[in-house]
Amino acid sequence: MTERLPDHVRALVTEIETEIGDEEFEASPLAPPAPAAAPTPAEIIEGRQAGPDGRTAAVAGSAAAIEQAVRDILVEIGEDPDRQGLVGTPGRVHRMYAELTAGYHVDPARLVNGAIFDVDYSEMVVVKDIPFYSLCEHHLLPFFGNAAVAYIPRGRVIGLSKIPRIVEMYARRLQVQERMTQQIADFLMETIQPMGVGVVLEATHLCAVMRGVKKSGTVMTTSAVLGVFRASDRTRAEFFSHLERRPPGE
User: Fold this and answer.
1) Which CATH class is domain 116-244?
2) What pTM does this model have?
3) Do the strands 142-152 and 125-136 form a parallel or antiparallel pair, or are they unpaired?
4) Is residue 181 within 8 Å of 224, Cβ to Cβ?
5) How far is CA 140 from CA 100, 167, 206, 207, in A?
């Protein structure tokens, strides 16, 4: 689905899906099936629409329509879109949103790429301090922070580098933090079927810092706990205790 994307967006999608040393993608019995493609907000931003086969194609004139809409906004706020500093802004805004919503185009099966391994290990796996940047769908302003993801394997583990990529896939969409937190947890639960998953996101929202209440320093924390993380107070407490520990050397 990435062959018709702009070069900079296709490169970003490929970066999220693959890593140095990855072999060419082949479906693995352990990899989750790729979901059927469907129209998304990113397809609108990209000027694309779903065809009968579920794949997407460019919509003629959509890029021009988006750029005209940006020009209209500039005029509405009292600016001159033809002055030197703004003449290229509509095109830049169009390309920016295509990049910031590249997560819609990531193929989850290509991202996992069979990196699910049978391992006799049943203790908690925690990956934390994962930076992310996303766009609040209510105001199209950024929110950003760090994610912590944990799971307890049920005989299968996922490659370590895949967890930050999963976070990135969901961050590069129009989001609310609560939904993004749940999506990361659900993806891991469905992909490797562990005994449980825990996810915590901490983020600063510019919609709260730059507008409205204008409360700088405000941090929003969300969590999603599934399986044994929800059922067992002890497991949940162990997860949160890991988040309080600082990495060696700090």
Assistant:
1) alpha beta
2) 0.82
3) antiparallel
4) yes
5) 10, 19, 10, 9
Per-residue model confidence (pLDDT) at position 41: 57
- CATH of 7-105, picked from 1.10.287.110, 2.60.40.10, 1.10.286.10, 3.30.70.100, is 1.10.286.10
Question: How far is it, in rounded angstroms, from Cα 248 to Cα 226?
Answer: 29
Q: Which residues contact 23 (CB under 8 A, 6 or more apart)?
A: 113
Catalytic residues: 136-139, 177, 205, 207
pLDDT below 70 — which residues of the chain? 1-3, 19-62, 247-250
Backbone dihedral angles phi then psi of residue 104, each to the nearest 5 degrees = -65, -25
User: How far apart, in whole angstroms, are the C-alpha atoms of residue 236 and residue 241?
Assistant: 9
**Where do we find the tokens 């929202």?**
205
Contacts of range 238-242, beta carbons closer than 8 Å, 24 or more positions apart:
238/124, 239/124, 239/126, 239/150, 239/198, 240/200, 242/124, 242/126, 242/128, 242/148, 242/150
